[in-house]
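Project outcomes to date are best conveyed with an example. Our students and postdoctoral researchers have been running inverse folding experiments weekly, and each run begins with a structure described purely in tokens. The record below, which covers 445 residues, was selected by the lab manager from last quarter's runs and is presented without edits.
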């Protein structure tokens, strides 16, 4: 099938050509001090057709609701859900009592999406306040819009990720009847930054949107929240994940105390249970309560995914022993740790040696904490890059992974990353050198 159904025309028309120097200037200024690669410089964002762009957000919101229900049906309490996941309770130490824990479990999400000949496929769901690249997606989006002459002139449209998230916090403050004040809780140690610009930009965006906002490192958080004898910030943005902070040796006691004092850090801890890839495996396998529309949605947008244990499964109309299926059809599958992040603990069958694959399958079967997912044959997107040797350019196929930001059901911009030069494999910016960019919605002719 032609890629034209999903990707807009590879080259923007001649009237929309932008000089290489202007693009480099705008992107360099936007990404200064954020430690993201900008070379080789692409000469446009990834432009999706309206059909593909809208399908990603519509399907993503619906799948997120199904994932939420899939976890919630397992137990009525966070402790019960942790047990159902077979997880260590110590991995989820920041749950709160009461209905708000469940209400805000899926308020922030950034799935990982690829496109095959049939359209978008959701290969995992990152859920929680600590989903990455909100800042650089916002900045790169603004840089592209500026480079192409402003929002009215640019041949594409796209929302501002941080502004959409800010609007969510304003709605939440009204819903809960609290002061619109947000504590941004994070650390420069986590984002590997030499300045606080990463967080300052988010605080500035919140303030422009009408929120009181301040950035806090974890140490001393509780004292700062109660500096005037009352809770200064009733809401918080949880810009971290527990595993990453534990790797950094950061004590979570102050965070726990802030929650107990009444600061609602969003998204809630349950978000990270929903993000466990085992939940996606349960949904892919089907739940008794699913309607015909639910099943059609899952069949259309989720690749075949199963929790790996020694059991029988159905695949392509036949019954198989799951371990035997994975060993016999190595090139058709990917193994992922349920709680892995940033491309860690992912093994693609066709890109590894048989011995490594067999060892990983044995580990997964024994541990019960991995999923197997059918490999998605993505279609390439033709991109144009600046030539380092002069003002010219060259074209190359890339295989993008899209990251749609969904804030309480609202579309909040679309990050994208891809390996340069037509390479395929695990596509991670921090670990495997993928290039970060943005995807936009092409305007109708």
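After processing, the design step wrote out the following sequence:
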């Amino acid at each position: 099938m032609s890629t034209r159904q999903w990707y807009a025309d590879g080259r923007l028309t001649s009237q929309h050509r932008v000089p290489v120097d202007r693009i480099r200037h705008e992107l360099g200024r936007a990404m200064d001090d954020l430690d993201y690669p900008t070379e080789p410089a692409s000469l446009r964002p990834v432009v999706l057709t309206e059909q593909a762009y809208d399908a990603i957000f519509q399907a993503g919101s619906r799948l997120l609701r199904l994932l939420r229900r899939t976890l919630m049906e397992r137990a009525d309490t966070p402790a019960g859900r942790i047990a159902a996941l077979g997880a260590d309770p110590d991995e989820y130490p920041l749950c709160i009592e009461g209905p708000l824990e469940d209400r805000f479990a899926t308020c922030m999400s950034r799935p990982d999406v690829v496109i095959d000949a049939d359209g978008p496929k959701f290969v995992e769901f990152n859920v929680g306040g600590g989903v990455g690249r909100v800042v650089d997606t916002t900045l790169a989006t603004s840089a592209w819009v500026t480079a192409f002459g402003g929002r009215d002139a640019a041949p594409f449209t796209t929302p501002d990720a941080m502004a959409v998230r800010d609007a969510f916090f304003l709605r939440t403050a009204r819903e809960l009847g609290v002061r619109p004040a947000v504590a941004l809780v994070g650390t420069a140690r986590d984002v590997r930054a030499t300045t606080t610009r990463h967080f300052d930009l988010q605080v500035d965006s919140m303030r422009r949107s009408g929120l009181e906002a301040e950035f806090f490192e974890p140490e001393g958080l509780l004292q700062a929240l109660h500096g005037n004898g009352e809770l200064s910030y009733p809401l918080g943005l949880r810009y971290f994940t527990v595993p990453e902070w534990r790797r950094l040796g950061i004590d979570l006691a102050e965070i726990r105390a802030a929650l107990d004092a009444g600061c609602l850090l969003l998204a809630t801890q349950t978000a990270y249970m929903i993000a466990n890839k085992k939940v996606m495996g349960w949904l892919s396998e089907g739940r008794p309560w699913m309607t015909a529309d639910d099943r059609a949605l899952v069949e259309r947008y989720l690749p075949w995914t199963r929790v790996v244990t020694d059991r029988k499964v159905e695949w392509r109309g036949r019954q198989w022993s799951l371990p035997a299926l994975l060993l016999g059809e190595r090139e058709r599958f990917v193994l992922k740790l349920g709680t892995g992040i940033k491309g860690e603990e992912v093994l693609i069958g066709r890109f590894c040696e048989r011995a490594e694959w067999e060892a990983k399958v044995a580990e997964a079967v024994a541990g019960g904490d991995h999923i197997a997912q059918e490999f998605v044959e993505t279609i390439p997107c033709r991109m144009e890059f600046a030539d380092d040797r002069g003002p010219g350019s060259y074209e190359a196929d890339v295989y993008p992974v899209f990251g749609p930001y969904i804030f309480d059901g609202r579309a909040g911009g679309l990050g994208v990353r891809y390996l340069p030069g037509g390479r395929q494999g695990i596509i991670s910016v921090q670990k495997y050198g993928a290039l970060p960019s943005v995807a936009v919605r092409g305007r109708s002719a």
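DSSP finds 17 helices and 19 strands in the chain. Residues 50-72 form the longest helix (23 residues). The training component of this project remains on track.
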